[in-house]
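Entry type: protein chain
Record version: 2
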Amino acid sequence: GAVAGLTVTLEAYAGFTQVAVFTQTVDAAGAFTFTELATDPNLNYLAAVNSDGIRYSSTILNFTGDTTRLSAPITIYATTEDASVVRMNGIHWIIDPRPGVVVVVEVYSVGNGGNRTYVGRTVEGIEQPVTVAIPVPAAAEELGFENGLLGERFQQIDETVYDTAPVLPGEGSRQIIMRYLLPQTDR
């Protein structure tokens, strides 16, 4: 099928440290097989494939008990530019007042209610398509993100930050964690 010939990467982790990477090619039947893997239950495996520049991955896998085979289906979705599929599934704010400043952490759970990966739309001033727009207070300082860098994955124009990563189908398929400081002045 259309997936034949794609490269699958199998990443092995001990804790959060990547300890090995294996690659395999998807065959004509749309399958891939890795052999002679360590079956240590303390190792976690993650299979991933890039299709049209979008990373799709399996769930985290590991060998337990007498298991000698693991199955790791990876779903690759067609893409869409229809923004109506994107949903904010949840927004959490953590406010931490400190002397002279307030530390603000915003946690966004973003999902896609459709059956295609949302690849974004163009915004003037940003080279790559953007998928999610988040307002930022004008006074915000030291803006940072848990899972990407400002100026790379995240782009800012005025008081809006844009995420450029595609949004895969599923509720809460993406989490964005944004942190900034708001200076406080004595009144």
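Comment: The mean pLDDT is 92.
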